[in-house]
Design a protein that fits this description.
496 residues; 2 domains; alpha+beta
Length: 496
């Protein structure tokens, strides 16, 4: 039996410095946001010999952040940027590590847990820390070009007695079943689903979450015929589209042929904008309507035939904090009239609620991949925090201070990371940080920002040896600005 689920905080502490080229008037800022990545902060501009000016921004990782930044930034050359980074990396990662040790040095434990880190977009997709023999070969990297459908989130056979039926993978989300505008939930039908869920909650009684999950199942069983009508229409070679919009018979034939080709393993996928364009041009006379949200879920299925045309895929949605709906199975089939690909309406027949930090945690406990249910989420969240800090990382360790980034590594979007040293807390330390340390910090910097900074995160420093620029009476200099950050998964996933 799976043990009764117990809520648990999953927290990491990050410290470090970021470089700026700016006037000397820094500003101190604190924020708490559900998004695990901060807004952009301008570090400086780069002036190229061609006359082009490029903005160089930074972001910080974490939900609860205290940082220094500079609002009035200047301009440097590419050569100077390289010099600035070299001087910054030579000194300030070591200072950030010392700041982290002041905070967590006395709570490190001998019980260290190492876990693998994968290049995936969300915590629940992290599978690098699990025994392949128990959970299967998940998250094999698939080559997808820009514009193609993204691969299925968790790939591999999920099959266990009881709740989890045979499925070829999971599409997972932290978005709620009672919200519209995402993952196939939209329009008047989505609004009716929300009202129905509200009524179920008001009624109360036994099995509220299970009844909510079944309501979600009934919503999608009503949507599949509408989506199939649209798919049938778009694959009909005799249907002509709008001439004013430039939609032609030829383009309909083209997408039909592409859809046929996608039913073989390794298909490339129809891009979401392209698919949406086709549907917009050919929906006249079909039943229901097909918006961007429906285009996304259908595009994902078309782009992943090796999963959606086998056993099918499970979709998960948040019901409430630590409660999730699992809907099975979303499957596509082309055995019908004329070999046209359609959603298999008969396959979508299972709905159940699970408790956990993530929807798939219970499965990992059922197959013996972890000792306790929460371990699955703990490993995955900390792996994702390390990936956000360093896209090249392959492992990380819970309960140990570790260098994640020197500040020389750019993000996928081209922004320069701050230096990052981090500590993944175990469950006892995480509870202490969430319930004690964060409120304490809030009280301390409310009393006096300067004293708080000097004691816990440091003060901005001039980076010596880097040229000063003067414009009239204004001087621009290189600065190293410290920060303290805490990642808080319950806040990221559930807004709590």
């Amino acid at each position: 039996m799976v043990e009764t689920f117990q809520q648990e905080e999953i927290v990491s502490v990050l410290t470090g410095y970021q470089r700026y080229f700016a006037t000397r008037n820094s500003r101190f800022q604190t924020y708490s946001k559900r998004n695990p990545i901060s807004q952009k902060f301008r570090m400086y501009n780069i002036a190229y010999s061609t006359g082009a000016i490029q903005e160089r921004d930074s972001v910080y990782i974490g939900n609860h952040v205290a940082l220094y930044y500079y609002p009035n930034t200047g301009t440097i050359t590419p050569k100077e940027e390289k010099q600035l980074t070299e001087r910054f990396v030579a000194k300030y990662p070591a200072k950030g590590a010392k700041n982290l040790q002041k905070l967590v040095g006395d709570v490190q434990t001998n019980k260290l847990i190492s876990t693998g880190v994968q290049n995936v977009p969300s915590p629940e997709e992290q599978m690098g820390g699990f025994d392949v023999a128990k959970v299967g070969g998940y998250n094999v990297l698939l080559n997808r070009r820009p514009g193609q459908a993204q691969p299925t989130d968790i790939r591999g056979e999920f099959k266990a007695a009881g709740k989890f039926k045979a499925t070829s993978g999971f599409q997972v989300t932290t978005q709620r079943l009672d919200e519209t505008g995402h993952h196939g939930i939209y329009g008047k039908g989505g609004q009716k689903l929300r009202t129905r869920i509200e009524n179920i909650r008001r009624q109360g009684g036994e099995g509220v979450n299970q009844r909510i999950a079944k309501a979600g199942l009934q919503y999608f069983k009503g949507r599949l015929p509408q989506w199939n009508a649209a798919l049938m229409k778009i694959q009909n070679p005799r249907v002509r589209g709008r001439t004013a919009g430039g939609f032609t018979q030829g383009s309909a034939l083209g997408v039909r042929n592409r859809i046929k080709g996608l039913t073989s393993a390794g298909g490339g996928g129809v891009s979401i904008p392209q698919l949406q364009s086709y549907f917009t041009g050919m929906m006249a006379g079909s039943t229901g309507f097909f918006n961007q949200s429906a285009a996304e879920i259908t595009s994902t299925a078309l782009g992943n035939p090796e999963f959606f045309t086998e056993r099918g895929v499970s979709y998960t949605y948040v019901i409430d904090p630590h409660a999730h709906a699992v809907l099975q199975n979303f499957r596509m089939d082309r055995s019908g009239l004329g070999g046209k690909i359609q959603w298999d309406e008969s396959s979508l027949k299972h709905a159940f609620a699970v408790e956990g930090i993530m929807a798939t945690d219970e499965y990992f406990k059922l197959v013996g991949a972890v000792d306790r249910q929460n371990d699955a989420a703990v490993r995955r969240v900390h792996a994702q925090t390390m990936h956000r800090a360093n896209k090249n990382a392959t492992t990380t360790t819970i309960g140990k201070s570790q260098a994640a980034n020197t500040g020389a590594l750019k993000t996928n979007s081209g922004r320069l990371h701050a230096s990052i040293d981090l500590f993944h807390a175990d469950k006892h330390m995480a509870k202490l940080i969430k319930q004690g340390l964060i409120p304490f910090f809030q009280e301390e910097y409310a009393k006096g920002m300067k004293k708080f900074s000097e004691q816990y995160i440091g003060r901005p420093e001039r980076i010596q040896g880097f040229p000063t620029r003067e414009f009239g009476k204004t001087q621009f200099r290189a600065w190293a600005a410290p920060y303290l950050s805490i990642t808080d998964y319950s806040y990221e996933a559930f807004g709590t």
